[in-house]
């Protein structure tokens, strides 16, 4: 009941974002901009990671998320992400929270049923991942020395198969604040902080956690941008896969390249390397975004 109540509260927050944006937009409509013409984005961004994630064995993870992002106004958007998951290794790991790519926490669940016989040798599992629904509202627009301030509400729905180890079978909810500040004509700084309420699967104690990300982007041209990030989060769990030793906090570094040949198409390539044993050794992703 507690987890369900938190999920409903997070959904209520997302709905409230829409009402707040509508009320604030009526008195003074914002000036039109090129971005305002975009009302819908559809993205497909497969990512592959490989590492031990604090265990003794290497796990390969392929995640193929399809995201539909609806821009209600130039200050409010809602995004729905439906991912496909493929994992191979002796440890099948479930994602905690939803902000993939920002030093995500993962947990290996104790084997159940037929998985127990497979626990001592590599296995492959695949299927639907946890569906994500999030809403983002710009509270304050960037002005002079002040950054743009946006708030985030996100719900992770337990749609991944917990019997396969691909999910925890529990809801997770995330709230956060994103800051964005232009530095001159070409540079942009990013600071994101978030807090995730984690639903603990049966037999496992999982703590809520803070997450953070600091980034710096450089626009080479209007079409080409490079952005680097340092991400981290706090420890969440005593991992049953490693004899109840406490996992080290995930930390990683990412480099992203974005190429926007037209206003309606964006291509993206990203690589990451882990800075702690709680993150993958390396990862790479590539994707395309179509704007309508």
Walk me through this protein's architecture.
The structure is a single chain. With 292 residues, this protein is mainly beta. The protein has a single domain, classed as monomeric porin ompg (Porin, Beta Barrel), CATH 2.40.160.40. 10% of the residues lie in helices and 51% in strands. The strands form 2 sheets. Strands 1, 2, 3, 4, 7, 8, 9, 10, 11, 12, 13, 14, 15 and 16 form a 14-stranded antiparallel β-sheet that branches. It has a two-stranded antiparallel ribbon with strand order 5-6. A hairpin with a 4-residue loop joins strand 3 and strand 4. The protein starts with a helix and ends with a strand. About 8% of the residues have low confidence.
Summarize the structure.
The chain is mainly β and about 290 residues long. The protein has helices at about 1-25, 115-120; strands spanning about 40-45, 45-50, 60-70, 75-90, 95, 105-110, 125-130, 130-140, 150-155, 170-185, 185-200, 210-220, 225-235, 250-260, 265-275, 280-290. Strands 1, 2, 3, 4, 7, 8, 9, 10, 11, 12, 13, 14, 15 and 16 form a 14-stranded antiparallel β-sheet that branches. A two-stranded antiparallel ribbon has the order 5-6.
């Amino acid at each position: 009941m507690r987890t369900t109540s938190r999920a409903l509260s997070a959904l209520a927050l997302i709905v409230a974002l829409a009402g707040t944006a509508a009320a604030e937009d009526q008195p003074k409509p914002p000036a039109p901009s090129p971005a305002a013409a975009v009302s819908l984005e559809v993205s497909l961004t497969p990512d592959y990671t490989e590492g031990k994630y604090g265990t003794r064995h290497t796990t390969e993870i392929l995640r193929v998320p399809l995201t539909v992002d609806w821009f209600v106004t130039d200050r409010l958007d809602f995004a729905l992400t439906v991912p496909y998951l493929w994992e191979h290794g002796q440890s099948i790991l479930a994602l905690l929270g939803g902000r993939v790519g920002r030093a995500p926490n993962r947990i290996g669940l104790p084997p159940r049923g037929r998985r127990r016989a497979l626990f001592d040798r590599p296995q492959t599992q695949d299927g639907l991942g946890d569906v994500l629904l999030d809403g983002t509202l710009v509270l304050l627009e960037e002005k002079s020395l002040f950054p743009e301030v946006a708030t985030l509400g996100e719900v992770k729905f337990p749609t991944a198969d917990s019997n396969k180890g691909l999910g925890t079978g529990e809801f997770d909810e995330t709230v956060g604040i994103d800051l964005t500040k232009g530095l001159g004509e070409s540079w942009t700084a990013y600071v994101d902080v978030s807090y995730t309420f984690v639903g603990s699967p049966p037999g496992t104690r999982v703590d809520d956690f803070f997450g953070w990300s600091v980034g710096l982007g450089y626009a080479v041209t209007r079409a080409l941008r490079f952005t680097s990030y340092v991400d981290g989060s706090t420890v969440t769990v005593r991992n049953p896969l490693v004899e109840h030793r406490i996992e080290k906090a995930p930390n990683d570094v990412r480099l992203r390249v974005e190429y926007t040949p037209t206003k309606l198409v964006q291509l993206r390539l990203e690589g990451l390397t882990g800075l702690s044993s709680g993150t993958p050794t390396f990862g790479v992703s590539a994707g395309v975004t179509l704007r309508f």
